[in-house]
Amino acid sequence: MRYLQVEKDVRDTETLLCRLGRAPAEHAGMVNVPIYRGSTIISETLEEWDIRNKDYPSYGRFGTPLSRALETAICKLEGGYRSILFPSGQSACSHSLLACLKAGDSVLISDGVYSPVRAFADNVLARLQIKAEYFCSTKPSELAAKISAKTRAVYLESPSSMTFEVQDVPALAAIAHLSDALVIMDNTWATPLYFRPFEHGVDISIQAATKYIVGHSDAFLGVATANEAAWHALKSTAQHFGEIGAPDDIYLALRGIRTLGLRMRRHWENGLVLAQNLQTHPAVDRVLHPALPNDPGHVIWKRDFLGASGLFGVVLKPMSPPQLSVLFNSLRLFGIGLSWGGYESLALLVEPPKRMEGSLPFPGPLLRIHAGMESPTELIADLHSALNAACEVADDTIVPPETSELVSQCQIVS
Ligand SMILES: *Cc1c(COP(=O)(O)O)cnc(C)c1O
Questions:
Q1: Catalytic residue among 105, 186, 203, 382
Q2: Does the beta carbon of 191 sit less than 6 angstroms from any atom of ligand 1?
Q3: Residue 249 burial class via C-beta count within 10 angstroms: exposed 0-12, middle 13-18, buried 19 and up
Q4: Domain termination residue (choose one: 208, 229, 258)
Q5: Would you give the distance in Å from CA 375 to the centre of its chain?
Q6: Are 274 and 232 in contact (CB under 8 A)?
Q7: N6-(pyridoxal phosphate)lysine-modified residues are where (predicted)?
């Protein structure tokens, strides 16, 4: 008891990360909750069966001591009422939407949203007669103009996937709540450590735990956390669809939480150093990172966020396909691959999500960088030498004045 009591008085996140979701006294003194595999849970007596049915899992699909441990830990970190696990981040996104919506309703989604969520809304929600509409994520006035009595949910993701615009979540949530719509937010980029969704008006917060919470690119998991008002709908929807997390993946996510604070600080630091450094390379047009003071989202980021993750965007000056191929093929420390949030650095050529107002204000190719935990000096050197190699590729397909300018600038640097 002495050991368990501590949790109630702990306020500091670093201490919480070491303590949350643990119960050594209930597990033979083991520091970590072991992996529970199981469907049937046996009761000794009818009385015990009744108790289990009321407030303890009575069947593996309704939870195990391990899944409850992770849910409790994430819920405390997010600052919500209860959390529930899903087999992937995408599953947490789609079921959170389904929890809030029925036929005839509409949902307003910020236009820079994770593209599989847009695809889910435009395909599955549309088939269920739920209308998905989009609004420019940086314009609360556009949300105010589009919201109607039929809008039952507003879906946010800040910063936006791929282009990293920071949203004014409190302002957007206030508009949604005036119309009694619930606010769902994908909080994967910041993790609960760097954005406290329920202090900013969010009703359901989503973590693709696959990313930073697991942190090692070796498991899939999603978590949705609700306030009291949204909890019943979220939980019953998850149960109707039979959504559960896999025991080994849950164990890895709970283990990941122990080092989340340390890892996030390193990702933040490395990401910012890389972002600052890339701004100075002549092949780079703009760096999209809200912690940079010249970023359009910086003021709101500073007001609402407690840190930054390692994921950001880089807009290149126009480059030909052969140059891009040399750029990527020259990288030694950056893997080319989907997902992010693991310990390793990644680089990817991405398509910006569709926007309300035609094309984005930049024409060049868009890179998404995930700064891993390697040495920042070596990461910078790797990116610079790959960019320089790309600049040295002569190619007729580029507009001549820009090419010569770009190449001469690059040669000065290299
Ligand atoms: C990756 C990602 C998801 C989906 O997570 P999966 O576990 O891959 O299904 C959802 N939202 C965001 C912002 C993501 O980056």
A1: 186
A2: no
A3: buried
A4: 258
A5: 24
A6: no
A7: 211
Number of domains, the chain: 2
247 and 271 assigned to the same domain = no
Distance CA 369, CA 371 (A): 6
Same domain, 226 and 269: no
Higher pLDDT, 357 or 208: 208
State the pLDDT at residue 357. 63
Residue 163 pLDDT: 92
**pTM across the whole model:** 0.93
8 occurs within a structural domain: no
Q: Could you tell me the distance, in angstroms and rounded to a whole number, from the CA of residue 280 to the centre of ligand 1?
A: 31
* Residues 218 and 172 reside in one and the same domain: yes
Whether the pLDDT of residue 219 is over 50: the answer is yes
Chain-centre distance for alpha carbon 193? 12
Whether residue 297 is found in the same domain as residue 233? no
> What pLDDT score was predicted for residue 402?
47
Q: Are residues 245 and 335 in the same domain?
A: no
Q: Residue 221 sits in which domain range? A: 13-258
198-237 as b/e: b if 16+ CB within 10 A? bebbbbbbbbbbbbbbbbebebbbbbbbbbeebbebbbeb
Q: Per the domain annotation, does 52 fall within a domain?
A: yes
35 is a domain residue: yes
388 within ligand 1 shell (Cβ under 6 A): no
Tell me the best of 90, 185, 189, 312 to mutate to test the pocket of ligand 1, counting ligand atoms within 8 Å of each CB and taking the most.
Answer: 90
Determine whether the shortest distance from the Cβ of 188 to ligand 1 is under 6 A.
Answer: yes
State if residue 249 touches ligand 1 by the CB under 6 angstroms criterion.
Answer: no
Domain boundary among 258, 286, 311: 258
Rg over CA atoms, the chain: 23
Confidence of residue 7 (pLDDT cuts 50, 70, 90): low
Tokens 């000794």 belong to which residue?
44
Residue 186 falls in the annotated catalytic set: yes
252, 194: one domain: yes
Answer yes or no: 211 catalytic.
Answer: yes
Question: Has residue 203 been placed in a domain?
Answer: yes
309-327: pLDDT as tens digits: 999 999 999 999 999 999 9
Structural tokens at position 273? 């150093």
Given a cut of 60, whether residue 82 has pLDDT beyond it is yes
The token pair at 225 is 């956390």
- CATH of residue 50's domain is 3.40.640.10
